[in-house]
Amino acid sequence: MDIAIDIGGTKIACALIDNDQIVDAIKVDSIIHTNIDDLAPYVYAQIKHWVVQARSINIACTGQVSPDAVNFLSVRRQLPLQAQFRSLTGLPVTIINDASAAAWAEYVLNEQLNNKNFIYITVSTGVGAGIVFNNDIITCADGFCAHLGHTTVKTLSNQHYACHCGRENCVEAIASGTAIAKYASQALDKTISAKDVFTDYAEHPDIMPIINNAAAAVAELIFNMKATFGNSNVVIGGSVGLAPLFFNKVAAKIQHAPEIYQVNLLAPKSGANADVIGVHHYAKKQLSEN
User: Are 120 and 237 in contact (CB under 8 A)?
Assistant: First the structure.
């Protein structure tokens, strides 16, 4: 058996996997934004009763992920998670970015994407991406690649959107659930969540421009990636990305783009467990190649 862990900004999901099937699962709140220094022991406490059965620990994690450390950009903190989990469990540890893990789950499980180049974009707490090219995930030594949420795009307004990475008009600063909730709360003069935006306020005249601006930012990102990689397929996941209103607005902008920029926009097939499934299969791939 193997243990797969998905460390996100809002939730942490852990799964015990046997013969590629999840046989047990745990989900807890994330502490990245409240107590990040205790992240590794906090997660280990959730899975320690599985460790005796496991052969490996495979982690999909938000942030800039490299073998040496994970740089959690939103809280400006680095942790040597791979080394910490090796020390805590005594098991081999594979760690990749969570959006890359979700992309690999689609590559393995979605017949439409097998043996094809494509981009997976997750629009949730932040905006992340995984790029599958030539039958592999694009990675780099320091982990700062495929962070498409930190590419800049033109906006529908003249407003400048400051991003926590230090730049302006990053897609994440415009279209993430965090950003949408922030600007919607300002517009309504009360605190609401991104979920509230789509369930209760989507038709509000002060909220519609925020959603339109966010969808336009993601569409611009897709056009830029089409020009860069020549991919014909894009998968959008995440709680915001899969909100029907948001997904349909992005799809409409793609339909009205010049033909050379048009792509097939797909919803993910791998479901809520995409990250744990993806990192599990990616770790198997790495093991078979080494």
Answer: yes
Token duo for residue 57:
């620990």
- What lies within 8 Å, CB to CB, of 167 at 6+ separation is 150, 152
Residues pairing with 162 in the sheet: 168
Whether the Cβ atoms of residue 202 and residue 183 lie closer than 8 Å to each other? no
Q: What angle do CA 33, 38, 43 make, to 5 degrees?
A: 95
pLDDT tens per residue, range 261-277: 999 999 999 888 999 99
Structural domain boundaries enclosing 55: 2-97
Identify whether the C-beta of residue 211 lies closer than 8 Å to the C-beta of residue 246: yes
DSSP annotation of 144? -
DSSP state string for 190-218? S---HHHHHHHSTT-TTTHHHHHHHHHHH
* 121: its two tokens: 């974009």
Residue 260 maps to a domain: yes
**61 and 89 belong to one structural domain:** yes
- Final residue of a domain: which of 70, 97, 124? 97
Q: Output the domain CATH number for residue 129.
A: 3.30.420.40
Q: Tens of pLDDT along 6-64?
A: 999 889 999 999 999 999 999 999 999 999 999 999 999 999 999 999 999 999 999 99
CA distances from 112 to 61, 115, 228, 229, 250 (A): 26, 9, 21, 18, 20
